[in-house]
Design brief:
By secondary structure, this protein is an alpha+beta fold. The protein has 3 domains: 74 residues, DNA Methylphosphotriester Repair Domain (3-Layer(aba) Sandwich), CATH 3.40.10.10; 102 residues, Homeodomain-like (Arc Repressor Mutant, subunit A, Orthogonal Bundle), CATH 1.10.10.60; 192 residues, TATA-Binding Protein. The chain is 44% helix and 13% strand. It is built from 17 helices and 9 strands. The protein has a 5-stranded antiparallel beta sheet with strand order 5-9-8-7-6, covered by helices on one side. Strand 1 and strand 2 form a beta hairpin. The protein is globular and about 70 Å long.
Length: 388
């Protein structure tokens, strides 16, 4: 049995024929004649059922010899929920690959972090995703490179580095092999917006509707750390740091395209993949509300779900920041914890300039481990917990 046969073919067929956006990214369609794979919402003329094959991941379609469609752009589809039909080991592996690909030692290092053998991990990936870990990472790398080519003005050398290829020659060869065009030819096909300032990028990050943007902002606004985060005019803003550099993000709703617009200002393009993946996680963009809602059958929960469809689980930029906020919030109100977090940031955070209401980076673990926190207004027990 091939991996594509594990899908519900009738559901896939109905979703393909109706171009239902709720199924976007949940499976991909390989067209036998053209040998391309498409999203379920692809606007191209509908192929006959006998001429298509279904794959649950883009990597599986690529492994079967199909190349990405230049019209519907599979790299722009919402991500597949990591928990969907996969064991915990595969879900954890996908999260680690999303953070850094396989740049930290390859499949062997990934397997070691997960506590399994590399051969067993490969078997799990082929069984549940239809592709090896290396193939999944390579497909992600290619998709992000294509997104950078289409949506930014980055020089091709920087696109190669930002998408994890390491060198321009390998990047050019991979793009030409998969897309049958050079990177420059692909960029000429893209409808690029007006030139942007240096180190400024805009990404359109898709989700499966519905999405309760107001519910997300309402939650984040009440807990925004002064100086580090802000919610203004329907936008979420935050200072960020990664790999020794820092910058800002601004996220807003693009309801017409079932997407969030992420505006990123960051000096090191090599961190863009990490930044985009973290934004997707922060705003729970891979969630499948249509699959989640039927399980919330409790009368009280169902009433809330029906009143505000598309509620998501808010995430965070940094697990360390979230842990500190959890410590600060013990036995006090949300407002009180936010005030304490603001005092902590003003005292120990790194100031930044020219970012409007965003004035500081959140303090690093190294700074807080040796800082004198007695003047912030916290009980001794919380100070000791932060230093631990």
């Amino acid at each position: 049995m091939t991996y594509s046969m594990e899908l519900d073919l009738q559901v896939c067929s109905r979703a393909r024929l109706s171009r239902d956006p709720r199924f976007d990214g949940k499976f991909f369609i390989g067209v036998l004649g053209s040998r391309v794979y498409c999203r379920s919402i692809c606007p191209a003329p509908t192929a006959k059922e006998k001429n298509v094959r279904y794959f649950a991941t883009a990597a599986a379609a690529a492994e079967a010899g199909f190349r990405p469609c230049l019209r519907c752009r599979p790299e722009c589809s919402p991500g597949t929920p990591a928990w969907l039909g996969t064991p915990n080991t595969v879900s954890r592996a996908l999260r680690l690959i999303a953070e850094s690909g396989l740049e930290d030692g390859g499949v062997e290092s990934l397997a070691e972090r997960l506590g399994v053998g590399s051969r067993h991990l490969r078997r799990l990936f082929v069984q549940h995703l239809g592709a090896t870990p290396s193939a999944v990472a390579q497909t992600r790398r290619l998709h992000f490179a294509k997104k950078l080519i289409d949506e930014t003005k980055l020089p091709m050398g920087e696109v190669a580095l930002a998408s994890g290829f390491g060198c321009v020659r390998r990047f050019n060869a991979a793009i030409r092999r998969i897309y049958r065009r050079t990177p420059t030819q692909i960029r000429h096909l893209a409808r690029l917006a007006a030139p942007r300032a240096e180190n400024h990028y805009v990404f359109r990050l898709r989700y499966r509707p519905p999405y309760s943007w107001h519910g997300m902002l309402r939650f984040l606004a009440a807990r925004a750390t002064p100086g580090v985060e802000a919610v203004q005019d329907g936008r979420y803003l935050q200072t960020i740091s990664a790999n020794g550099s820092y910058g800002t993000i601004e996220v807003s709703l693009d309801a017409a395209n079932d997407a969030l617009l992420a505006r990123v200002q960051f000096g090191d393009p090599r961190s863009l993949f990490l930044i985009v993946e973290r934004i997707r996680a922060m705003f729970d963009l891979n969630a499948d509300c249509a699959a989640i809602a039927p399980h919330l059958k409790d009368p009280i929960l169902a009433e809330r779900v029906n009143a505000e469809p598309g509620l998501r689980v808010p995430g965070c930029w940094s697990g360390f920041e979230l842990a500190i906020r959890a410590i600060l919030g013990q036995q006090i109100t949300v407002k009180g914890a936010t005030t304490l977090a603001g005092a902590l940031v003003r005292t120990f955070g790194k100031p930044i300039a020219n970012a409007g209401t965003l004035t500081h980076l959140f303090p690093t673990p190294e700074v807080l481990a040796t800082a004198d926190l007695t003047g912030v207004g916290m009980p001794k027990a919380r100070i000791e917990t932060i230093r631990a």
